[in-house]
Amino acid sequence: MRVRKKRNGERRLAACSYMLVKSPSDAFGGKTGSGSPDRPLCLEIGCGKGKFITETALRHPDCDFIAMELVTDVILLAMERAAALPGGPPQNLRFINGNAGQLAEIFEPNSVSVIFLNFSDPWPKTRHAKRRLTYRSFLEQYKKVLTNDGELIIKTDNDGFFDFSLSELSESGWVLDKLTRDLHESPYAADNIMTEYETAFSSRGKNINSVRARPG
To answer: pLDDT tens digits for 194-215?
Structure first.
């Protein structure tokens, strides 16, 4: 889906630029993303309008969060959402305008405790399989930046994308946990924070697939 250009986008982006970083080393007082147990570093790839990552950062002040988004006009909305909070944006949340193909260049090895993939573009055509964020080449990058006990958490409404993801994860040696094809009716629903897409899909009765995976 094409994103409509935002009015006064450059001015609005400049107003939020204090939340933008190029790498974790530019954020959180020079934190390099060491993955230390006292301040774990968590990453959402494709943060959309920022509902999930903002609420998650507020709920977990003991962790640091990076929200990565490729589309500038979308990350703008996410940053404006964070900035509009009564106390301003969470101090443990920063944004990177980039894509998953750059992870190994941006993040140190073994530095990220959790990677969230929420409602990633399913790229449904077979010839586009390599673009899916759960394709094995992306999974290899996730392995490099995750800590030894780190995990990848996936949520999607797209059953085909979920089946593909499970296959790629299994064939790439990942260990699967808390797998469900109906998250909101599962034992894992209590701690779930919904994204914008999730709220819309679930209100129409669509099941939400979810799994947690650790590198094998």
So the answer is: 999 899 989 999 999 999 999 9
